[in-house]
Amino acid sequence: MSLESVFSLPEMVEVWQETLNWQPTNDQQNQLQKLYELVIEANHYVNLTRITEASEFWEKHLWDSLRGVAPKQHFIDSLHPGASVIDIGTGAGFPGLPISIIFPNSQVTLLDSTRKKINFIDSVLTDLPLINAKTIVGRVEEIGQESKHRENYDLAVIRAVGSVSACAEYSLPLVKKGGLAVIYRGSWTKEENQSLENAVYHLGGEVELIDEFTTPLSNSIRHCLYLRKVKHTPVSFPRPVGIPTQKPL
Ligand code: SAM
Questions:
Q1: Where in the sequence is the signal peptide annotated (predicted)?
Q2: C-alpha 167 to ligand 1 mean position (Å)
Q3: Does any ligand 1 atom lie closer than 6 A to the CB of residue 169?
Q4: Is residue 32 left, alpha or beta, with left meaning phi > 0 and alpha meaning psi from -120 to 50?
Q5: Nearest-angstrom CA–CA distance, 5 and 127
Q6: CA-CA 20 to 30 A from 113: which of 2, 34, 91, 243?
Q7: Which fold has domain 13-246?
Q8: What tens digit of pLDDT does each residue of 166-223 get?
Q9: Ligand 1 proximity of 204 Cβ (cutoff 6 Å)
């Protein structure tokens, strides 16, 4: 295999069309390609991801990030022009960076507690360039209690950050009344429904949809949980750093 093909993302025009009823423009495809190259390059000195092969990166980072905000083959209304979005525990920028590339009229905040990862994302924002995204280094339990962030976002996305009840406690306080939190999961069992319903109820939300699907290349199972914010979240949430994981709701 040539070096070029190793580092060239597949276009997957038909798969995008079939699964999301959408296709990236040439500019967007170029930006996704550049994002891939920047992740691969930085991965030599910061531990960002173990997913480096082009088609796997396409499926598990790019497609997966966007599929979460496109249940039922349509991008969600919470991504309207001017929407404010926060990606909690963004790591190397997923799902937040693909969202900010595809929705240039949204304002995306990328939050992580690890300075090294945020430094990498800052360099991506300069290199791509992306002007509709900004970063914050911090713990979501603290950010969620700051008035400039609390109930300030139309959409919160969170992937691979903790248990489902911790993810609900991290995300719902940041969402405006009427807005949406999307929790990206791999597997999901019916038994988990009860703890999710319970956590969401305490946080002023409602479970709007649990969407089960398979990824298009490796047929892996995924679930996305869509939580609608229907009431203000009590001020006691999120609880102090560490408590949401130590004492799940
Ligand atoms: N969301 C990315 C993805 O799916 O590729 C990264 C997932 S990584 C497994 C979890 C990330 O969440 C790490 O980068 C970690 O630093 C961050 N994180 C964990 N707990 C956090 C907290 N309480 N506040 C902010 N970031 C947190």
A1: none
A2: 11
A3: no
A4: alpha
A5: 22
A6: 34
A7: Rossmann fold (3.40.50)
A8: 999 999 999 999 999 999 999 998 888 988 999 999 999 999 999 999 999 999 999 9
A9: no
